[in-house]
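Need a sequence for this fold. Nothing fancy.
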């Protein structure tokens, strides 16, 4: 799986049974929620460019670390760690494709200090009738693309994101039930450790 495919897919699945809310959530509250979300684990559904659906498990350890483990028959693993994003293809005998994390929209939610009130970061802040939808970009590097985040309320919870990369391609990740507050082994997010384990 290439980075393009990982970040590629139209928003085709509508969220259902979401709690109703009266108005959009303030950016200050959403920033606080993200910054307090140090660890997260959830099942996810991803819509791919070819209109197939991938599923798997996501682990996040902010700041800067994430792991996407795809269910069979997919043989892909994506790790963010050490300021890099690595895409491992189980069908390939070569090493992972690696990209600077800061050059991907995913960095916007993995950053140490997320400030959605920062000038130029949020380009859209809406309420769609069931959830608050925020579209954010790196104000200094808008060419890297953007990430659209969807939050429900009571309590605030991240439900999905849509990443648009620098070429305009999109991917959607829909999250299942979130678990937070756990501890992860540091090797979980180590690209080097994963490479070494595959070479044994």
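Here you go.
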């Amino acid at each position: 799986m290439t980075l393009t495919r990982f970040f590629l897919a139209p928003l085709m699945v509508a969220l259902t049974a979401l709690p109703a809310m009266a108005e959009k959530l303030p950016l200050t509250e959403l920033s606080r929620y993200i910054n307090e979300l140090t660890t997260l684990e959830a099942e996810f559904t991803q819509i791919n460019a070819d209109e197939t659906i991938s599923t798997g498990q996501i682990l996040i350890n902010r700041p800067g670390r994430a792991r996407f483990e795809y269910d069979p028959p997919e043989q892909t693993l994506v790790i963010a760690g050490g300021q890099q994003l690595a895409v491992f293809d189980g069908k390939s005998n070569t090493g992972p494709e690696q990209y600077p994390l800061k050059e991907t929209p995913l960095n916007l939610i993995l950053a140490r200090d997320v400030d959605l009130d920062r000038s130029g970061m949020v380009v859209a802040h809406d309420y769609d009738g069931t959830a608050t939808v925020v579209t954010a970009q790196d104000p200094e590097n808008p060419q890297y693309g953007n990430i659209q985040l969807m939050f429900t309320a009571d309590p605030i919870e991240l439900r999905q994101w849509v990443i648009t990369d620098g070429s305009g391609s999109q991917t959607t990740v829909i999250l299942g039930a979130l678990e937070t507050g756990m501890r992860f082994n540091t090797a979980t997010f180590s690209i080097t450790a994963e490479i070494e384990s595959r070479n044994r």
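For context: The first helix runs from residue 3 to 6.
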